[in-house]
TrEMBL record:
Domain UDP-glucose/GDP-mannose dehydrogenase C-terminal, chain residue ranges per copy: 300-387
Protein name as it appears in the record: UDP-glucose 6-dehydrogenase
Origin: domain of life: Bacteria
Reaction(s) catalysed (UniProt annotation): UDP-alpha-D-glucose + 2 NAD(+) + H2O = UDP-alpha-D-glucuronate + 2 NADH + 3 H(+)
Keywords in alphabetical order: Capsule biogenesis/degradation, NAD, Oxidoreductase
Organism listed in the record: Pseudolactococcus raffinolactis
Family: Belongs to the UDP-glucose/GDP-mannose dehydrogenase family.
Higher taxonomy: Bacteria, Bacillati, Bacillota, Bacilli, Lactobacillales
Length: 388
C-alpha cells in the first residue's frame, strides 16, 4: 500500500518508519532542515528506536518538502500535525489538520485521510459534513515521549475509527508493521475512537494525580511515601506500575487531553474529570511551596525534560514550578544540555554542570540522575523509583 505522512513530529515520524517496513511511504514536513536531516538518516528527535531505524535502514521512507508530490503518492494520507489546546476557546486548535485536508482535496478530490492527531470528540463527523466526503478516518495513537516508535512496534492496541472493510484494511496495515504478534484491533465509529483517546489519557492523568496526592499527604505528615505506594501496589487490581511521584503530569498529551475531555463534559454531569485537571495545578503549587520553604536565593532547574532520555520539554510540569518560583522573586537558572539558547523562559541557561551546581542553592529535578549524587543535600525531587 502507498502511504503519505504529513507532519514529522514524534507521531508522524514513528508512523512513517513503522509503515515503511512493508508499505511504500512518503513523508512530508514544512521544515526544510528536518527533511534534510532525515534524508541524511539523522533523527531530529531523541528516540533510540527512531535513530536505530534511520541509521540501519530498517525502514524505507522517502522524505520530501513537496506537498503536491506527497498528496499524489498515497492511497491514504496520514495526518500527524500538531493540535495544541486553546485555553481561551477550551478546544483543540485543529487548523493544521484542516489546512492539510483543504489543500489536498484541491489537488486530489478523491483523497482518503487517516488522522492520527488528537482531536475533540465528534470532530471527524463534523469534517465529513464540512468537506462533503466520507474519506476521513480517525485512528488514535498511544505513544510515550522517547518511546514513540517502540510503542508503535509493540502497541497495546490498534484502534480504527471506522467499522468497515477499509477500516479492517487499515488495521491490518498497522498490525503488519508491528513486531508484537497478538495486537488487538478494534474497529469502531469515529466519535467513539476520539473518546477512547481522550478517556485513555485522562485515566493516565488520574493515576499520576492520585500518586502525586498520596505523596503530598505523606510529605506533609512526615510519612514514607515509598512504603505506602509499595503496599498499595501489592493489590493486583492497582498494580506496581505508573506510580512514581512527579511534579505533575505534563508533556504534550496529558495536559491538553484532560482539558479537552473536561470541555467535552460542558453539558454532562461530572466531578472527577474537573478534579483531575485541578489536581495538577494543586500539585505544582505544593511543590513550589516546598522549594520556597528552603528559602533559596537561586534555584537550579536540572533538565526541562519530563522524562529521562528525552529531548522533549513541551509543556513540561517543571516549567509550571519555574513560573511559581519566579513570581516569588527567586532567581531561576537552568541546566538543559539540549538547549542552545543562553536564556529560556527569561532564565539563564548554565551549560557547565559544575558551575550549575555551585550557583544553585536548591537543585530541582523531576527525575534524578547519577550525576547529581555529589550534591544530594541540595536536591529537591520526588523521584522515588527512578522510573519514568
Amino acid at each position: 500500500m502507498k502511504i503519505s505522512v504529513f507532519g514529522l513530529g514524534y507521531v508522524g515520524l514513528a508512523n512513517a518508519l513503522l509503515l515503511g517496513q512493508h508499505e511504500a511511504v512518503m513523508a512530508y514536513d514544512i521544515v526544510d532542515d528536518k527533511i534534510e536531516m532525515l534524508q541524511e538518516k539523522r533523527s531530529p528527535l531523541v528516540d533510540a528506536d527512531i535513530i536505530d531505524f534511520l541509521t540501519h535502514d530498517k525502514s524505507q521512507v522517502e522524505f520530501t518538502t513537496d506537498f503536491e508530490k506527497a498528496v499524489m503518492h498515497g492511497d491514504y494520507l496520514l495526518i500527524a500535525t500538531p493540535t495544541d489546546y486553546d485555553d481561551v476557546h477550551n478546544f483543540f486548535d485543529t487548523s493544521s489538520i484542516e489546512s492539510v485536508i483543504e489543500k489536498a482535496l484541491n489537488i486530489r478530490p478523491d483523497a482518503r485521510f487517516i488522522i492520527k492527531s488528537t482531536v475533540p470528540v465528534g470532530y471527524v463527523q463534523g469534517l465529513k459534513v464540512t468537506y462533503q466526503t466520507d474519506n476521513i478516518i480517525f485512528s488514535p495513537e498511544f505513544l510515550r515521549e522517547g518511546k514513540a516508535l517502540y510503542d508503535n512496534l509493540y502497541p497495546s492496541r490498534i484502534i480504527i475509527g471506522e467499522d468497515s472493510q477499509r477500516g479492517q484494511e487499515i488495521g491490518e496495515m498497522f498490525k503488519r508493521g508491528a513486531l508484537r504478534q497478538d495486537v488487538p484491533v478494534l474497529l469502531t465509529h469515529s466519535t467513539e475512537a476520539e473518546a477512547i483517546k481522550l478517556f485513555s489519557n485522562t485515566y493516565l492523568g488520574l493515576r499520576v494525580a492520585y500518586f502525586n496526592e498520596l505523596d503530598t499527604y505523606a510529605e506533609v505528615k512526615g510519612l514514607d511515601t515509598q512504603q505506602i505506594i509499595a503496599g498499595v501496589g501489592l493489590d493486583p487490581r492497582i498494580g506496581n506500575h505508573y506510580n512514581n511521584p512527579s511534579f505533575g503530569y505534563g508533556g504534550y498529551c496529558l495536559p491538553k487531553d484532560t482539558k479537552q475531555l473536561k470541555a467535552n463534559y460542558s453539558d454532562v454531569p461530572e466531578n472527577l474529570i474537573s478534579a483531575i485537571v485541578a489536581s495538577n495545578t494543586t500539585r505544582k503549587d505544593f511543590v513550589a511551596e516546598q522549594i520556597l520553604a528552603r528559602q533559596p536565593k537561586t534555584v537550579g532547574i536540572y533538565r526541562l525534560t519530563m522524562k529521562t532520555n528525552s529531548d522533549n520539554f513541551r509543556h513540561s510540569s517543571i516549567q509550571g514550578i519555574m513560573k511559581r518560583l519566579k513570581a516569588k522573586g527567586v532567581e531561576v537558572i537552568i541546566y538543559e544540555p539540549t538547549l542552545n539558547e543562553k536564556t529560556f523562559f527569561n532564565s539563564r541557561v548554565v551549560v557547565d554542570l559544575s558551575d550549575f551546581k555551585i550557583a544553585s542553592d536548591v537543585i530541582v529535578a523531576n527525575r534524578m540522575d547519577s550525576e547529581l549524587v555529589d550534591v544530594l543535600e541540595k536536591i529537591y525531587t520526588r523521584d522515588l523509583f527512578h522510573d519514568n
